[in-house]
Amino acid sequence: HTGPLAADARFPVFPPHLVSQVRAAMPDDGIICLDNGVYKIWFARGYAAYLPNTVLLDNALATMGAGLPSAMMSAMVYPDRKVMAICGDGGFMMNSQEMETAVRLGLNITVLILNDSSYGMIRWKQANMGFADWGLTYGNPDFVKYAESYGAIGHRVESADHLVKLLDHTLNTPGVHLIDCPVDYSENDQILNKDIKALSKAINDPTTAVLAIDQLQRMLRVVGQRVGDDLGFGGAFTHVRKFENELAHASGLQYAAHRFDNARRCREVLPFLGVRIWRVVTGHALDRRFEVIEAM
After folding, report:
1. Which is nearest to 65 in space by CA: 46, 81, 88, 38?
2. Strand ranges (DSSP E) for 72-126?
3. Of 132, 150, 159, 265, which is most buried by a Cβ count within 10 Å?
4. 188 phi and psi angles, rounded to 5 deg
5. Which of 134, 183, 152 is nearest to 17 (CA)?
6. Residue 256: which of 238, 272, 233, 278 has the closest Cα?
7. Cα separation, 31 vs 75, whole angstroms
8. Contact of 113 with 156, CB cutoff 8 Å
9. CA nearest 108: which of 75, 74, 136?
10. In this predicted model, which residue has the larger pLDDT, 234 or 63?
11. Closest to 210 in 3D by CA, of 156, 265, 258
12. pLDDT digit string (tens) for 118-143?
């Protein structure tokens, strides 16, 4: 159900589309450092991490201003990896003076500012609680000129397509880059409060567990085909079919089928099973397992 959202190339940029474009631009070992704001929910739901410690966020601690310093430290520890700070305009301004430090230290980072000229998360909560829209909007400096005043390089997004070009440019050009990106949060409430609840209700249908089992069987066949195509195991496809039942029992799938009538639990189990199956079938090349799971 997330495909159409991620493909929505409106401007100002739609958060699910932005998440998908950042994921496409970042290498598997690239590090994103999230500040605090409503965009954090979109990234937590939609940004796939392929390696440990490549998505740094504080979950619900609400530490606004943490995105830029986290990215700076990441770039210092891993100077050969791509690093991006993802901040709201409010969170960025709480520690924006550290742009000078980043420039002085000669770091290579991209600072992506999602600009809605407000404290978007609190504004959203304020509306959900039935209060009037009050006290949470403000004016911002010209972020491009602000970056340049520290000796950094400023950019402003002019369209969804332009965002893609800027991400590629800043991630592959040395220095401290700031991208000012206008965002459209107008559908936050509909999607995050209403649509997701409706989907969750549908997922709790007991029949979904059976569908999850069918999905796993299809996943097994995809793994076998990919192993045969990519790694030269001619009998891999047959091998997977032969061990379907054994894998199902070994991984607790029968328990899932009979006891996990709550399909939310099945959804938690399936990604783990995908990794485990990949290990059993190949016995090695674990560094490629995410490629295969993504293809499923």
Report:
1. 88
2. 83-88, 109-115
3. 150
4. -55, -50
5. 183
6. 272
7. 9
8. no
9. 75
10. 63
11. 258
12. 988 888 888 888 899 899 899 999 99
Q: Which residue has the tokens 């999850």?
A: 212
Strands (E), the chain: 31-34, 55-56, 83-88, 109-115, 153-156, 176-182
Report in angstroms the alpha-carbon separations of 32 from 8, 55, 83, 151, 264.
Answer: 22, 5, 6, 22, 27
Residue whose pair of structure tokens reads 């496809």 in the numeric block? 237
d(CA 131, CA 50): 40
Q: Are 183 and 21 in contact (CB under 8 A)?
A: no
CA distances in angstroms from 166 to 17, 87, 169, listed in the order given: 15, 16, 5
DSSP label of 118:
B
205-239: burial string, b at 16+ Cβ within 10 Å, e else? eeebbeebbeebeebbebbbebbbeeeebeebbee
Please tell me the distance from the alpha carbon of residue 276 to that of residue 274, in angstroms, as a whole number: 5
Do you know the residue count of the chain?
Answer: 296
